[in-house]
Amino acid sequence: MSELEAIILTIITASTPLLLAAIGELVTERSGVLNLGVEGMMIMGAVCGFATAHLSGSALLGIVAALFAGFAMSMLFAFLTQTLLTSQVASGLALTLLGLGLSGLIGESFTGVPGVKLAPLYIPLVSDLPFVGPILFGQDILVYFSLMLVPAVGYVLLRTRAGLIVTAVGGNHHSAHALGYNVIAVRYICIGFGGACSGLAGAYLSLAYTPQWIENMSSGRGWIALALVVFATWLPRRLLVGAYLFGTVWIMGLYVQGLGVAIPSQLLSSLPYLVTIAALIIISRNKTLTKINTPACIGQPFAPER
Q1: pTM for the whole thing?
Q2: Is 24 within 8 Å of 45 (Cβ atoms)?
Q3: pLDDT tens column, 45-61
Q4: Domain boundary assignment for the chain
């Protein structure tokens, strides 16, 4: 039971950054914007969160710094794509490259420095329960926040006027503009939300998952988060299942390596990415479901004066 408990706890820590980054990107894409810079925003959140936590001694301040780092990077992307009308694909890729390079520069002096670990919450009595206590009642604040964010985003997108406006902007920005909605402002807000979530995902990596700074520690998680949005067909409730499924694959690959199974470690390390490809192939076969939920204007620039 103790070994099973350790595996489940590790799966939760592996899945949380994927879920945080993916839920932010889902909102961004629902507004009709494709931001491929998730990896760059995530790694900037990781380095800024770690640096702030180390210098201040507070993991909570590190979380705030990471959130603003991701938000600032997303605003750069928003300015390029929504104000200057540059290519969303090219700008997103440039944002990832900028984040990877800049984080390496900022984090150079923090390599090998002891980190400040985000402490788990402790609820008297229930946190001490065997097995279920540490799993359900002994997680840190970002785990609970990510789990609450899924139904909250789902409710806003599907049940509120604001969510319907976001969906309308992503579905047909010209019609939304004709109805009097400020398409650019809506997309700025959604891009900012996505950046903040990616920053939090990065903070979780450097403050909870591995409380230290390692260059390129995001290890492609931003790309998996992008694939998760497609895997979930832009529906928040499916995103939760997908994030924990991919997190399980990620950890089981490491677990099998630890058991000494005669399988090349390179193959086991590539499992999450192989599963990502397989999942996208499976999803693409259901063209009806994909067509219904895909924002029709995703990746398309909008200029109100044209």
Answers
A1: 0.93
A2: no
A3: 999 999 999 999 999 99
A4: 2-293
